[in-house]
Protein: Sr13
Amino acid sequence: MEAALVTVATGVLKPVLGKLATLLGDEYKRFKGVRKEIRSLTHELAAMEAFLLKMSEEEEDLNVQDKVWMNEVRELSYDMEDAIDDFMQSVGDKEEKPDGFIDKIKSSLGKLGNMKARHRIGKEIQDLKKQIIEVGDRNARYKGREIFSKAVNVTVDPRALAIFEHASKLVGIDEPKAELIKLLTDKDGVASTQQQVKMVSIVGSGGMGKTTLANQVYQELKEKFKCKAFISVSRNPDMTNILRTLLSEVGCQDYADTEAGSIQQLIRKITDYLAEKRYIIVIDDIWDVKTWDVIKCAFPMTRCGGVIITTTRLSDVARSCHSSIGGHIYNIRPLNMEHSRQLFHRRLFSSEEDCPSSLVKVSNQILEKCDGLPLAIIAIAGLLANTGRSEHLWNQVKDSIGRALERNPNVEVMIKILSLSYFDLPPHLKTCLLYLSIFPEDSIIEKKTLISRWIAEGFIQKEGIYTAYEVGVRCFNELINRSLIQPVKKDDYRGKSCRVHDIILDFIVSKSIEENFVTFAGVPSLTTVTQGKVRRLSMQVEGKGDSILPMSPILSHVRSFNVFRNRVNIHSTMEFRHLRVVDFNDSLLENHHLANVGRLLQLRYLSIYMTAVSELPEQIGHLQCLEMLDIRYTMVSELPASIVNLGKLAHLLLGSEDTCVKFPDGIAKMQALETLDEVDASKQSYNFLQGLGRLKNLRKLHIDYHDVAQEDKEVIASSLGKLCTQNLCSLTMRGNDDDDFLLNTWCTSPPLNLRKLVIWGCIFPKVPHWVGSLVNLQKLRLHVGKEIRHEDICILGALPALLTLGLKGMQKQPSCEDGRLAVSGEAGFRCLRKFKYWRWGDRMDLMFTAKCMPKLEKLKIIFYRHAQDEAPIIPAFDFGIENLSRLTTFKCHLGCRPMATRTFDAVKASLDRVVRAHPNHLTVIFSYPLRTSDMTYTFHDCYMRSQD
Structure:
């Protein structure tokens, strides 16, 4: 990825360089007196940006002076951009040619204004250049002195200590250890000779205990192998050293006796030595696919049998290990509450019974925050061991988790391990990760709003044919891949969200404060001393009253203003003229708070999601930089006419199931629109529905066409047809049960660009033939009214890119003779990963046969019937789950009346037999209705896993 526009390392130097180049263009050529200074400043800043990027690559080892210098340059870059923006704004509208006497006077005043602006920008550029030189001179002046005082501080890698942890001190290790041994051996505990080499890749975030688990399995099995080795890699591996160490361990010789040679020579020696021998090798802590691609070449596919175990924090590395040799990916699980409590109390007391009753409640609250992360539990226990047994002090520690926890040697070990993942990130991902510190603890952060914020802040940008949003999706997925954020789904078809583990949040909050990246207000137990100007403000004051935001010089340069769980009384928005991002998400916002929003001319992102606002001001049309507007779950029922003048608006999120928003005419002017979600067609004019089809850059559309007149349906069909031949790649529609106009009308030309198609409410008599033409489709949800036929399965199975399928059938009884429609390997579904199927009644009409759906990982079956039906659903589970070879998760939901306890036990036992018969270690979530009163039902989730 190219250097991002804005990074935590370089601040806004890159945008500043772009704007300085603009000042050298023809539009500003009348400012001749400062062009020489601008060129000189540009050269100086370009050199500084390059140097800062280089320093950021070595951030882990920077000394205090280097960090101070980087902070000074970064802060100056923000001041420079603010000054340039103010200048450009002050002269931007002074070039019109007026007519008449009054206009001539105004023109003269305008020229005077330009003269003032020219004088001001010249002076500011000279001042900024002077400050840049002073910062550089100061750094150089003190830099020379460190040569005489610099000492190397060698520390022990805390991960290495996990290898030497005695088994008696470990908690919760027995079950995962047994699972891995089962995957790697036959019943007698010996590696299989039928499969030449067995391998498992253990994947999970830092501090989960991957190294400890791998070592315990290694210690259990190593005596059964002639050759054995446990090799730790690192973030910056020396491949020659690693291969020499591997050769010395498997060959039982001293490291010094292994001859240094090329990587190819060392690989050949290892391969030749292991060729006819049984071996077990652990490669611990792999950080990239390239490293694995080299190491794997040393492992011969011996007939004698072998075992390979790898550990990694990165999902793509685990997949690479799995695909190159075959075997299993093992997602290490956090400790459950029982094991967490055992580990916690073992570190603090001799046993759980010795925990004072006054500390039981706060202990459980602390463990909930640790969320099963062993490293965090050990670190917090070490911290508490030095605080005494005071409930008040323990509560203080509990409140500080996730809010820049106070550092001591116990916590520092945890921070060091977590920081390895941070320092391994490229600059743009470091910036995107630190930005998550803005959100309060335990927030569920929606992917699309997070990415839009990244764009508005300038962290990511368009790359070639990929939009900025698509680049943002890559960044989001990469943070998940690196186990730094946890994916959360609101439901199967509403996109992903994420959350940040409290311990990782603690780290990034500390880092954000250190870098003056985010300033926090109202966060309990978090004291921030702001010496510089506030650039991004996160207000987390809880309460029902207005919070008064005092104005001060350090607040006047705020670029991102975020209010959580409260409302803020701002005296004058003009004081915040540099704002780029404003988020009042779920706060106590009212109409009058937006009175002057039209003056925030740099604003790119505005969210009033889930607030009581009922009207947007007409002056919102002045926000010519606005790219994202989120008014979902508000009381707004009509958009102002000026909304169509927002020429850069790319993402417009509006409406909900309860609130419909009416558009003004003129939507065709909004050619920058990429996302429109959700539009109620019944509230829109005929002209709007026509203009919808002219949005050439629209990529995502959610439209509801309930209760729409026939002539409007024809216009909608025409507009959808036009959009599908352009850039539309995601389409969600809601209609009426009896609507069939979509069956053929709008798909005379197949929408080949579609990657997601969700159709709610419209019941098709069969799978439409045009679905088979959607060669790029990755997600599909359809409702078939009569029956699922063999032809339907063939159409869906032939979709070459399909990853997620939701299929709902209404047929009460299976139509095929044997009662089951076979889904075989010949049916296709070569890429399908997730399958959600609604089945009427308790008789499954699909049968999964051998080799079908070869990549399916998640299966959810929903058995349902009409609410008035009294009989409970008692499903049979004999529909071939055991033939889904890659399945990891099975969810079963019974949408019916509650069942008797005896009946439930029988259903659960039937499901348990199927789970036990599956070759994989399945996670099963069984949801069933539970009567909570005479009239109310809730659903209870029963979690089960296959046993040995």
